[in-house]
Amino acid sequence: MESRIREELDNKWGIKLPKGRFSMEGKYVFFYTGDDLLLSGTRGLHIGSMESDGLRPTIDACQLATKGFVDVDEKEAKTWMCGLDLRKKASGDYVLIKFGPYVLGPGKPRGDWILNNLPKNRRLPLHSMG
Amino acid sequence: MNEKLASYHKELLGDEFALFEEWMKKPLRKAVRVNPVRASVEEFRGELDKMGAKQIPWCPEGFWVDDKPWGATIPYLLGYYYIQEAASMLPPEALSPGKEDNVLDIAAAPGSKSSQLAPRCKTLVANEPNPDRRKVLFANINRCGIMNCIITGYDGTRFPRAQFDKILVDAPCSNIGTARKDPSVLNEWTPRMAEGMVGLQKKLLRTAFSLLKPKGTLVYSTCTSSVEENENVVLDLMKDGSAKLEKIDLKIKSRPGRLDGTKNCMRVYPWDNDTEFFFVAKIAKK
Question: Which of B59, B144, B173, B223 is the catalytic position?
């Protein structure tokens, strides 16, 4: 499993993880770089989830990405960060929305849209759209 | 401010009680800490300038910023900085872990100090028994992109046997220090409330100390002013002679501990540095 996840992250988005161990909790994938200290506990960063169409990286894994981006302007960035879909064409399982230096998370291309699944606790309030 | 709180602090602070009254009414100065997992201070300098950032002397990544809602920005939501009160940056700075250290934060939620410690150490165990608070801790650790952290949910007074190089005990307390953020504490606080915390604080500190490797270091901290919750708790641990208080060398104006044998403890008063109240003790295992 480890090498397949590493390969997918690297090939699709240029995410190169350091030395460490993967673990699964249901469909959720975690990556941990520390020592083995205790038997229980949630180890490491939640980096993605295994979906029917492949691995979907989390917004936090996306911060390590070097490719697979769709660049957006400020208005689109705010729309995206409010949790709304973007009217924009793209291809691939998941693309990464990028505004300037900031990677705003993964989106799912569908037709003329990129679908948003930003977690609620990572969204701007709706009035931020101006 | 209720009468019991006022009379306790008149006795504690003497001539400085007027300052206490004055400063408890002042709103807290906003501060952030740059998350080095996402960007160095230099890489984030442009954003810091827009935030009106001024360096906090005791934390290289800490900055006072303009009074604006910094929790609703793209860099915040991506984990580039953590909104954290300036004095609460002290305990991790005092603990100062190294790259090979395994560290325990025994009362970790919401995660400000954990996220400050993790980038500096090998492994961080961030413990929080309350499930709702643990969810917030998990969210903050992930937002900061931290990969070397284990989040656990033990009762801190019954933490399983393990050995750590460094431990932070940022103990639950009666929270006088937070009055500038939440003035309701000024009406609710009683000496009995403070005394009610002492049993838990002593147990937590003793358990944590038992998990420390020989020659290891522990920091005990609270955001409250009472001697019962601070110096008395530290002295209780020191009774058997295996703990030694160490001097804390940070660039901040502070007062020594109030009781004999606690002069190396650090008391931080709001009017000295425009912060919350804080108490920090650095303890070495012989």
Answer: B223
Q: Which CATH architecture has domain A69-129?
A: Roll (2.30)
Going by C-alpha positions, the residue among A114, A117, A121 that lies closest to residue A87 is A114
Q: Nearest C-alpha of chain A: how many angstroms from B209?
A: 17
Tokens standing for residue B258: 């109030």
Total domain count, chain B: 2
Q: How far is CA A8 from CA A55, A65, B157, in A?
A: 8, 12, 43
B220-279 pLDDT, tens digit each:
999 999 999 999 999 999 998 999 999 999 999 999 999 999 999 999 999 999 999 999
Establish whether this prediction's ipTM goes over 0.85: yes
Q: SS3 for B231? A: helix
- The angle at the Cα of B131, spanning B130 to B135, to the nearest 5 degrees, equals 115
Angstrom distances, CA of residue B54 to CA of B64, B78, B137:
5, 22, 27
Tracing tokens 């009680």 back to the chain, one arrives at: B17
Q: Given CB atoms, is A130 within the 8 Å cutoff of chain B? A: no
Task: State which of B67, B84, B101 marks the end of a domain.
Answer: B84
Query: Per-residue pLDDT tens for B99-120?
Result: 999 999 999 999 999 999 999 9
- CATH number where B43 lies: 3.30.70.1170
Q: Do B78 and A37 touch (CB under 8 A)?
A: no
Q: What is the CA radius of gyration of chain B?
A: 18
Domain span at residue B235 reads 3-13+87-285
**Residue from the list B72, B78, B151 with its beta carbon closest to the beta carbon of A128:** B72
> Measured between CB atoms, does B138 come within 8 Å of chain A?
yes
CA distances from B238 to B74, B104, B174, B233 (A): 47, 20, 23, 9
**B196 inside domain:** yes
